[in-house]
């Protein structure tokens, strides 16, 4: 009987200690934007029917842009959405365009901004632009979050001129992943790049961000993004709000 009580007591101690151990937490547990349609490689005609799940920024605006592979803007649209307290909403809209010749590659980009007009989230898909009636719209497979940040936490207060970003990511392209620290006035005060070995392969990362001297408390946003070879626009972008202290 004494042995049984000792075993029970030991188990309670182990359980109590386990509650004190740090647990993995993520700053970005769910996508803030997902394009449902059109999917990558779709052949589309004007108007393009766009379906997505978005969490708009403080202005409740969604920006849709269509560019060609020469980075010329073929169409641009600004949509005001009805969202409360930053909740996710389902969006169905359409965008008109004109093209100089059929078969042109286009990049369709959805973007949101925060209250200081800094990028909040962006998603892009490559499509083939056509007006011959050969429309073939592919659904965009719903995948997990490409980026998860375990440190720092959202709205963390940081000082000392540098901090470390830790987490996991699944690169979309073979281009480097860019980390940029943007101030409330829109200026870049720190940046770093992470090389990509294999697109689509999930990796753990740890990268140091150095930033310039500040004399007052600043509201900043850490932007994490990737581009692709054929376009200068972002193929994917997410962000994290932070506070810098002197």
Descriptive account of the structure:
With 246 residues, this protein is mostly beta strands. 8% of the residues lie in helices and 48% in strands. Strands 2, 4, 5, 7, 8, 10, 12, 13, 15 and 16 form a 10-stranded mixed sheet that branches. A 3-stranded antiparallel sheet has the order 1-3-6, with no helix packed on it. A hairpin with a 5-residue loop joins strand 12 (177-182) and strand 13.
Question: What's the tally of helices?
Answer: 1
Q: What Rg, in angstroms, do the CA atoms define?
A: 22 Å
Shape: globular
Major sheet description: 10 strands, mixed
Order of helices and strands: HEEEEEEEEEEEEEEEE
**Helix proportion:** under 10%
The average pLDDT score comes to: 85
Which class best fits the helix and strand makeup?
mainly beta
């Amino acid at each position: 009987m004494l042995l049984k009580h000792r075993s029970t007591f030991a188990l309670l101690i182990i359980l109590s200690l386990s509650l004190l151990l740090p647990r993995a937490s993520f700053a970005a547990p769910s996508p803030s934007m997902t394009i449902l349609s059109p999917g990558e490689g779709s052949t589309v005609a004007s108007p393009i029917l766009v379906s997505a799940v978005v969490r708009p920024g403080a202005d409740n605006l969604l920006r849709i842009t269509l560019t060609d592979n020469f980075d010329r803007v073929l169409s641009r649209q600004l949509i005001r959405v009805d969202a409360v307290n930053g909740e996710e909403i389902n969006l169905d809209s359409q965008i008109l365009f004109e093209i100089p010749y059929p078969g042109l590659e286009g990049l369709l980009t959805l973007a949101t901004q925060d209250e200081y007009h800094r990028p909040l989230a962006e998603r892009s898909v490559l499509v083939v632009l056509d007006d011959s009636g050969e429309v073939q719209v592919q659904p965009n497979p719903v995948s997990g979050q490409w980026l998860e940040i375990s440190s720092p936490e959202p709205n963390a207060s940081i000082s000392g001129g540098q901090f470390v970003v830790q987490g996991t990511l699944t690169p979309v392209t073979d281009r480097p992943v860019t980390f940029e620290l943007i101030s409330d006035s829109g200026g870049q005060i720190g940046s770093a790049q992470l090389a990509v070995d294999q697109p689509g392969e999930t990796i753990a990362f740890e990268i140091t961000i150095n930033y310039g001297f500040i004399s007052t408390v600043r509201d900043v946003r850490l932007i994490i993004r990737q581009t692709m070879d054929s376009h200068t626009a972002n193929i994917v972008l997410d962000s994290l709000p932070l506070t810098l202290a002197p």
